[in-house]
Design brief:
The structure is a single chain. By secondary structure, the protein is of the alpha/beta class. Strands 2-1-3-4-5 form a 5-stranded parallel sheet, with helices on both faces. Helix 7 links the parallel strand 3 and strand 4. Helix 8 packs parallel to helix 9 and helix 10 packs across helix 11. Keywords: DNA-binding, Transcription, Transcription regulation. GO terms for molecular function: DNA-binding transcription factor activity; transcription cis-regulatory region binding. This is LacI family transcriptional regulator.
């Protein structure tokens, strides 16, 4: 209690008193200092639990000028890739004592991007992760004065200093090669929206591998990542002469499977399909989907 008899949150000194250690020792425990003996750490943590101690991050930020917060700028999407990336960043940040603050881009126009970026920077984030599948978002970011280190999870001709890259083209070539090695030559590609960096890279990988095998190529057919678009396109594809489809993601492949069954055909007996992303649901499609992780 304070001098007015009112309950107040426990402080570091309260924890130190309860654990029989100095407040410097409590601070070292909070910061996972390697010099602290395990039994001391356990005693301090037990005192923290008994007192319902909660670290005052705002006060700490004032003293250290650090907020231990990572900003995430992400384009609005229900797709597996961006959503799983946000979840993975949050998990990794928490494991290291950081929080994440997310700003979602409902539009890729410059004003929306600038507003979202300003919102994150106003929170004194220590770093920024950009998950923006469209190259135009990254172009706008390169024109901004960003005062913290930042990376993007997508490869593009317009890049910041640090990029985390998935070899989209290489993965697409592996998927296409898998079909070619099994004797398929009439292979269609169900591509994603071409304003998405991954979709364009996967399409290029497909075309490169087909040319490397001197296999006949047809123009990729554009979907929108959804199972519905895969189904609608699949209803047209089953009337063509083909033996296989490389789908740029697993959800469109699910729609293709639906259209194939509806036409009285079987996969892979009549038409083989390879997807991309290895979503958790892919193993539960019928038949289970061959897909690129």
């Amino acid at each position: 209690m304070n001098d007015d008899g009112q309950t107040r949150p426990a402080s570091i000194r309260d924890v130190a008193r309860a654990a029989g250690v100095s407040h410097q020792t409590v601070s070292r425990v909070l910061n996972d200092h390697p010099s602290i003996r395990p039994e001391t750490r356990d005693r301090v943590r037990a005192a923290m639990a008994d007192l319902s101690y909660s670290r005052n991050w705002a006060a700490r930020a004032l003293v250290t000028s650090r907020t231990r917060t990572i900003g995430i700028l992400v384009a609005a999407s229900r797709q597996y890739g961006p959503a799983s990336a946000v979840a993975g960043i949050g998990e990794a940040a928490r494991a290291r004592g950081y929080w994440v603050s997310t700003a979602t881009l409902e539009s890729s126009d410059p004003a929306s991007i600038t507003a979202a970026l300003s919102h994150l920077l106003a929170q004194s984030i220590e770093g920024l992760v950009v998950i923006a599948p469209q190259a135009r978002v990254l172009r706008v970011l390169t024109e901004q004065a960003i005062s913290v280190p930042y990376i993007t999870l997508h490869s593009t001709d317009v890049q910041p200093a640090q990029v985390v890259v998935v070899d989209q083209s290489g993965g697409a070539r592996l998927a296409t090669r898998h079909l070619l090695e099994r004797g398929h030559r009439m292979i269609y590609h169900l591509a994603g929206p071409q304003d998405w960096i991954e979709a364009e890279s996967r399409m290029h990988g497909f075309l490169e591998e087909m040319r490397a095998w001197d296999a006949p190529t047809t123009a990729p057919i554009l979907g929108d990542w959804t199972a519905r678009s895969g189904y609608e396109i699949g209803r047209r594809l089953v009337r063509r002469e083909l033996t296989a489809v490389f789908s740029a993601n697993d959800q469109m492949a699910l729609g293709l499977l639906h259209a194939i069954r509806e036409a009285g055909l079987e996969c892979p007996r009549d038409i083989s399909i390879v997807g991309f992303d290895d979503t958790p649901e892919a193993a539960h499609f019928w038949p289970p989907l061959t897909t690129v992780r």
